[in-house]
Write a structure and sequence with these properties.
This protein has 252 residues and is mostly helical. The chain folds into two domains: 167 residues, Helix Hairpins (Orthogonal Bundle); 60 residues, no CATH class. 73% of the residues lie in helices and 5% in strands. It has four helices and four strands; from the N terminus they run αααββαββ. Strand 3 and strand 4 form a beta hairpin. The longest helix has 83 residues. The two termini are 41 Å apart.
Amino acid sequence: MDPGLKTVIELQQLDTQIAEFTVQIDQLPKEIQQLETQLHEFIHAHDERKQRLAKNLKERKDFEVEIQSIRAKITKHKDQLYEVKTNEQYKAMLKEIEGEEAKVRGFEDQILEKMVEAEDLEEHIRDAASRLDSEKARVAEEVRKLQSLRQVDVDQRTELEARRNSDASSIGPQLLALYERLRRGKRGQAVSTVRNGMCAACNVMLRPQLFNEVRANESVLTCEQCGRILYFIEPPAASDEAPRDRPGGSAA
């Protein structure tokens, strides 16, 4: 194989691997951020429930204060029943007492609703509190693993980049310039194999003469359609051996 062509193929393989590592390296911080966001949301929901429970307790106390105030009025009104002079005043006083008692029942209903809500909140708070430390530990461990994986990827990419720089410096400037121009313009793929007489990148059939020249791998040639550098890999020979019968039955 032509030495320049061989080096360009290696460059393409290295650049492809470097690009893959770069994607992984860039993705890992996002995964770490997602983990930290999940933990933040868990803690935020826990704190929010505690705040709602505190508000719930305050509202219940406020309702109880209102009930005490109203019951004091009811007691006072009942004492005043004995002082009224006419039936109209008596009925009016009874109606006022009934209205105050209805208010008390309304506040008591709200207190019951708040108590049910408080029980639900307390259950969630207990559950979250029991899981909080383990969630923090889990996220910290996952973050540590991802950071470790990222460092491994960075180290491997650095090694590949060193090999890439060495290969790039070993070929002629014109061939390197062609490769770099194609790599920038072809979404990173400057080199393509030839399969079944076609460029594997653009699926266009090569002219017979060009195919024969590419098949020899003795020079740097490009696809007449997409411009990529072409090389040929001999396909594996098809096996002539007939399929054997499986034990206890016929061949599938």
